[in-house]
Every structure is written in structure tokens, then in C-alpha cells.
Design goal:
Structural class: alpha/beta
Number of strands: 27
Radius of gyration: 26 Å
Bound molecules: alpha-D-galactopyranose
Number of helices: 19
Distance between the termini: 45 Å
Strand content: 15-25%
Shape: globular
Helix content: 25-40%
Largest sheet: 10 strands, mixed
Oligomer: single chain
Length: 702
């Protein structure tokens, strides 16, 4: 009914009420979530990534003293020190690390050790040159960087087993070593050598059993690519014109993710056998998508990740790290996590990237992590390197060790997190809205990007940001996750779907959930093959629409209009919708399909399904949809927020902890409907809470 859309468009997003009662989500927690604070002897995990091997031993005591003064109780050590621990094959030297640990432990600082496999020693490459990764042209990378290895090379696996076993043996009973980090940022490189090809062929054989089944699933009859022997199955390497079978390419992505997990398990199997009392993590990379983190994280005790808010896609935008935190949390049943590398200074390699952040922002980002469920913050790195590739990648201290403004900020943050530990301990983020991230769809879009304007992460952000701007908590859920605790699930561009996912989403909607789909949903089956059903394929009935035509963005302008006449410029993709049982909420204005539906909503059982056939360039459309959908679904909203101020909530036993974070360089205020207590000062905040530039307020109800 058009008047419903009119109502939705007329909703003026202004008055938000904070509901003080707990709502949903409790059942999401696995039976025994890992407790980072308990693990760290009751202290909030607060640390730095430290490389004692980079500095004279005489420096260690000074460093540990300065760390302790800043409230630091944790370090990550050794993850690039393979050559120092195994200077020749089978010859191990840990005495230097014992001495470093002794100094740090004496200052109340415990350590996690990295297995050092991300940077194998030069002698290993000299002896086994084929451990180096091979690029898609069949050329091995030369020695000199890091992460240059093939996880299918037997010599590399043997070397991994040897160093991990030796470390585990030496440190298994060390009371100052409280855990392990596996490797460093697993997932790359994709290797295209003969060993990898053989491993991929084996993986395919396990999956498809017969060549006939593989040929059928991948549609290899196209261009007559049918394989008659397993040994003929290629890799998605550099073919003429870069044309390769998208089904093969998707399976190769899965293979890369699966076997990265297998490689992680080479480490965890040894550690769990030899050093079972020391928990295990890995430093993941947030939005990085070469690995399905929901799978990888089944083999770690808790999630840790590397958060650089002013780097890459996240540059200077608080929604970037916010969603990455939520995705990381979602990759292990929303269990609290830690940041293993929290940006501690300006990033750069051969040049400085980006601009320097105000010192206060380093504290704001730490609190943002906490607000999103982190129970540990570890800054990368203690002191900027004098040597090597990362001379421009700042740590907390510069090379001169002067206690600069970043150090002072880190010290303030350390003190405050110490103060808040009891309050935070046992609290978690609880959300009734979730964004569904589909690893298969992300990979499929990487293989065939649709149109040049398309970006899967941006699709997630358009909806995620809209809810977050309204102060609503959002989880990121994976296809294997528990949908039952949510009122709203947004599944951006759900390109690749299999039957179990369609069934799960149908069940969610029938039980009263609101599902939001947008363009390119239901196009491909699990083999990255286009469906022969009318689009959106297996989701068509649920959405109550048929799509018989679509128009990829070809530089033309398009616009949609809602029933009240509001217009929105749209771009990138235009699905032309024919409602079967759905209502039309907005229609296209231009071209040969002017007047055809662009946004629809279908009622199914107790729930409803939205289909948004296009993308708007402005945030306005998304804010209004989020407000309307949230209100209809009974989602608790946050306060009215000025731009650049984030509101986030943790909960414990019915009590809420609110975080107000101001990322801007001017003071801002947020109207709450009552007086809350400032958890850091202990005093009451006025109803109109003022947050100074780059500052944070942590509030609780009295
Ligand atoms: C050429 C080729 C066809 C087909 C089309 C579209 O015309 O002859 O086989 O590949 O391009 O790519
Ligand atoms: C990554 C790595 C670190 C360091 C930083 C900065 O996060 O894990 O070792 O290289 O980037 O480049």
C-alpha cells in the first residue's frame, strides 16, 4: 500500500528513546565464553606489541618501567623472531626471550607469544627455495619481504612443526606466557605452484567425488573446458585475457580459506598437545575477506584482530572500525574479543599514509573497541622501528623514546580501563538488528565485480551505518550463525545462496522477523552458477516479486520517488521489480521503466521482506528506512546524535553501560532523557551530556 510508504517517508527521525530494560540475545552466547579479563588475572588486557629483539638489552628495563607506568600489563612478543629462535635448522635459542620475559614479568607484564612463521629465516629459503609463494604467472616471489610461503609445501609444514613444537616445549610452563598467537594475519598469499595445484585437485576430489559431478557443477562444457582427468583441473591463474571459470574460482577461494584454517591447525594441534594450559588466538584483519573468519575462529579460544582506523577503507570514518569490530565479534558467536594491534600512531611504509590523528583519537578508538565488545587493547607498536620497512609506521613512542602525547594518552587510557574493569567484566553487546555477511557472495563479487561502482562492503555499510546513526546496536552475523535472536536482518546483495540459507531466512521471516534484501539477491547457486529461476531466484517467493529485467549503471542518471513525492538519486544498479504479492514502496522516474517498482515490501507469516532494487548515493534514504523498519519491528533506538558522535551499549545482568564517543575536534552534546552517572568521574551527568573534542563519556544508570 502506497500510503504505508508515505507514512514511512513522513517519519521524522528525531525523537529517540533509550529503553533501560535488557532485550534480546542472551541465547547467542556459547555455553562457556572465553573470559579475557579472568585469563589476564582479573586485569583488563592492556598492552603493546613489543619487539625486544630490535633493541639493546639495556633498553628493556627502561621500556618495561615506562610500560608499567602507563598501566600496561600485556605484551605480544616474538612473532617475527624465527631466525633469532632457530638460527640454524634444529638449533634453538630461547635464552634471550627468557631474559626479556623476566624483565617484563617483573613489571607485572604478561606475554602472548606469536608463532613466528609469517617471516621465515633466510636460511630456510636458501635450503628449500620452493617454500616461496608462486604468483599466477608461475614465478616465485624472491626472498626479502614476509608472508612469502606456500602452505602446501611439505618442507614449510615440517619447518613450521619444528619451530612451534620447540617454542611450545620451552614455554609451556612459563607463568609469564599466558597464550599464543598463530602466525601473523593469515590468508595470503594465494600460491599457484604444482604442490598447491595438486592440493586443490585433492580438495576438489574430496568435495565432488567424481569428475563428472565437478564438470556438471562448474558447467565446464562452456568453451569445451570439460576435464577428463583430475590432473587437468587448473587453478584460477593468469589465463589469456584473465578468463577463467567463476565456479572454479569460487571453489579456489573456499580452498584457500579451508587450507589456511588447516595451516592454523598445524600450529594449534601442536600447542594444544604440548601446552594445553595456554589459550590460543590469531590476529585477524577485520573486513579482510580471503578467509571465512567464522570458520577459522572455530579453532581459536578467542578472537583478536588488528585495527587501523586511519588506514585503507576505514580512513577517518568511525563506522569503518565499528563494523569491523562487530564482524570480528560475530565471527565467534558474539563472544568478547581483543584488539591485538590497535593503531598507535601514523601508518606508513615507504611513505606516510594519511594524516596524523589528534592524540585523543587514539584513546577514542580504544574506547570504541571496548564499546563494541573488546576486553583487551594492545597497541601496535611500543616504539617505532629504526630499521626496515616500517620506519614510517609509528608506534606509541617515536624512535627517541620521548614520552610524547600519544604515550600520555595511552597512559590515561590504561588508567581508565583499569578503573572500569569491574564494571566492564562480564558485560557484552546485545543487538536486535544484524547485517548478514556472506563469504560466498563476497568472493563471487571479487571474481565478477558486477559493475565498476559496486562494492560489497559499501552495501553492508549503507544499512549498518543507518542503524548506527540512530544509536542502534548492530551485530554482523554469518550464514552459520544464530538468526533467532534478531528482529531485523539485512542481507546486503545476497548474490550466492544455497538451500539451507534460504530455508533459514524463510524460517526467520515466518517467525516474525524483518528481512531486508537488496539488488542482486538470489542470482547464483552455491557453485557460482546463475539460477534458472526467475530472479531473485530462490528468494523470489519470499520477496513477493519477479525481476524480468535489470539495468546496470551505464552513466545514466536515475531517480526514485516515494508516495509522498520524495525523490532520491540512485546509482550503480537498477532492478526492475514486478510485485507478485509485495507492495510497491518506491518507483523509478526515468527511462523506459519509469513507473516500475524499485523498492517493495512483502508480508510473510508474521514477518516481512523488503527488496531494495537499487542504491542511493545519499544516506537519507537509508536513515529513513532504518527508522521505519526499526520502529515497525520494535527495535530500541539510541539518542539523537550529532554527526561524528557514536553511541554504543554494553549490557550485564540487565544493567546497561553507555558509551558516547566524540570523534570530532569540537565539543558536542547529546540529549538523554534522564540523568546518568559518569563511570569515570563517579558524578552525575546532566541530561544534555556534553562531550569535549575527541573525548569519551562512559555512563551507567544510578
Ligand atoms: C565474441 C565471440 C563469442 C562471445 C562474444 C561475447 O563475439 O565470438 O564467442 O564470446 O564475443 O564475449
Ligand atoms: C600489520 C602487521 C604488523 C605490522 C602492521 C603495520 O597489522 O600485523 O606486523 O606490519 O601491519 O604495517
Amino acid at each position: 500500500m502506497k500510503n504505508r510508504f508515505l507514512a514511512f517517508l513522513l517519519v521524522h527521525v528525531s525523537v529517540f528513546i533509550i529503553l533501560a530494560r535488557p532485550t534480546f540475545g542472551q541465547s547467542q552466547q556459547p555455553a562457556k565464553p572465553f573470559d579475557l579479563i579472568q585469563w589476564n588475572g582479573g586485569k583488563f588486557v592492556y598492552g603493546v606489541d613489543y619487539y625486544p629483539e630490535h633493541w639493546e638489552e639495556s633498553q628493556w628495563e627502561k621500556d618495561a618501567t615506562m610500560m608499567q607506568a602507563a598501566g600496561i600489563n600485556f605484551v605480544r612478543l616474538a612473532e617475527f623472531a624465527w631466525v633469532k629462535m632457530e638460527p640454524a635448522e634444529g638449533k634453538f635459542e630461547f635464552a634471550w626471550l627468557d631474559r626479556a620475559l623476566k624483565v617484563l614479568n617483573a613489571h607485572g607484564i604478561k606475554a602472548i607469544l606469536g608463532t613466528p612463521t609469517a617471516s621465515p629465516p633466510a636460511w630456510l629459503y636458501a635450503k628449500y627455495p620452493d617454500i616461496a609463494a608462486m604468483d599466477e604467472n608461475g614465478v616465485r616471489y624472491r626472498y626479502g619481504s614476509r608472508r612469502n610461503y606456500c602452505i602446501h609445501n611439505p618442507n614449510f609444514i615440517a619447518a613450521t612443526e619444528r619451530i612451534v613444537s620447540a617454542m611450545a616445549d620451552h614455554f609451556k610452563n612459563h607463568t609469564g606466557v599466558i597464550g599464543w598467537q598463530i602466525d601473523n594475519e593469515l590468508g595470503d598469499p594465494e600460491c599457484f605452484d604444482a604442490a598447491t595445484r595438486a592440493a586443490f585437485q585433492k580438495w576438489c576430489r574430496t568435495k565432488y567425488k567424481t569428475l563428472d559431478a565437478l564438470n556438471k557443477a562448474w558447467g565446464t562444457i562452456f568453451w569445451g573446458h570439460t576435464y577428463l582427468a583430475w590432473s587437468e583441473v587448473p587453478l584460477p591463474w593468469n589465463t589469456l585475457g584473465k578468463a577463467y571459470n567463476p565456479s572454479l574460482a569460487l571453489d579456489f577461494k573456499r580452498f584457500q580459506s579451508d587450507t589456511t584454517h588447516e595451516y592454523l591447525k598445524v600450529h594449534t594441534t601442536i600447542l594444544r598437545r604440548i601446552a594445553p594450559r595456554q589459550p590460543i588466538t590469531h590476529n585477524a584483519m577485520g573486513m579482510y575477506d580471503n578467509v571465512d573468519y567464522s570458520d577459522l575462529h572455530r579453532s581459536v579460544d578467542f578472537v583478536a584482530w588488528d585495527n587501523y582506523p586511519m588506514f585503507g577503507e576505514n580512513y577517518a570514518d568511525y563506522f569503518g572500525p565499528a563494523m569491523a569490530h562487530d564482524l570480528m565479534r560475530g565471527s565467534k558467536n558474539n563472544q568478547n574479543f581483543m584488539v591485538m594491534e590497535q593503531q598507535g600512531g601514523l601508518p606508513g611504509w615507504d611513505i606516510f599514509w594519511g594524516r596524523q590523528a589528534a592524540p585523543g583519537l587514539y584513546r577514542a578508538w580504544a574506547f570504541q573497541a571496548v564499546a563494541h565488545g573488546a576486553d583487551g587493547i594492545c597497541y601496535f607498536r611500543w616504539r617505532t622501528s629504526r630499521w626496515g620497512t616500517e620506519q614510517y609506521w609509528q608506534g606509541i613512542l617515536d624512535q627517541d623514546s620521548y614520552p610524547n602525547a600519544r604515550y600520555q594518552t595511552a597512559a590515561q587510557t590504561g588508567k581508565e580501563l583499569g578503573q572500569l574493569t569491574e564494571l566492564l567484566h562480564g558485560s557484552k553487546v546485545v543487538s536486535s538488528v544484524a547485517i548478514l555477511v556472506s563469504p560466498d557472495s563476497r568472493w563471487a563479487f571479487k571474481i565478477q565485480p558486477l559493475v565498476k561502482e559496486f562494492n560489497y562492503n559499501r552495501q553492508m555499510h549503507l544499512y549498518y551505518d543507518a542503524f548506527r546513526r540512530a544509536g542502534v546496536s548492530v551485530d554482523v552475523v554469518f550464514p552459520q550463525g544464530d538468526f533467532s535472536t534478531y528482529k531485523v536482518i539485512v542481507a546486503p546483495s545476497l548474490f550466492v545462496v544455497d538451500k539451507p540459507l534460504v530455508e533459514k531466512l524463510t524460517e526467520f521471516v515466518k517467525k516474525g522477523g524483518t528481512l531486508v534484501l537488496n539488488y542482486r539477491a538470489g542470482v547464483k547457486d552455491e557453485h557460482n552458477v546463475v539460477t534458472d529461476q526467475t530472479l531473485p531466484g530462490p528468494l523470489a517467493e519470499l520477496a513477493g516479486i519477479a525481476i524480468h529485467d535489470f539495468d546496470p549503471q551505464t552513466n545514466q542518471e536515475q531517480e526514485i520517488t516515494g508516495a509522498d513525492g520524495s525523490r532520491y538519486a540512485v546509482r550503480a544498479w537498477f532492478d526492475i521489480l514486478d510485485p507478485t504479492t509485495a507492495q510497491t514502496l518506491a518507483s523509478y522516474n526515468k527511462g523506459y521503466y519509469a513507473g516500475k517498482a524499485a523498492i517493495t515490501r512483502n508480508r510473510v507469516g508474521d514477518g516481512s521482506v523488503w527488496y531494495v532494487g537499487t542504491e542511493s548515493a545519499s544516506t537519507e534514504l537509508y536513515s529513513r528506512m532504518a527508522a521505519y523498519i526499526g520502529e515497525q519491528a520494535g527495535v530500541s533506538k539510541g539518542p539523537s546524535l550529532p554527526e561524528g558522535v557514536e553511541f554504543a551499549t554494553r549490557e550485564k545482568a540487565g544493567k546497561k553501560i553507555f558509551f558516547l564517543i566524540n570523534y570530532t575536534e569540537k565539543a558536542q552534546s547529546v540529549p538523554l532523557e534522564r540523568v546518568y552517572q559518569n563511570a569515570l568521574t563517579g558524578s552525575a551527568e546532566p541530561e544534555e551530556v556534553s562531550i569535549p573534542a575527541f573525548d569519551v563519556k562512559v555512563l551507567t544508570s544510578p
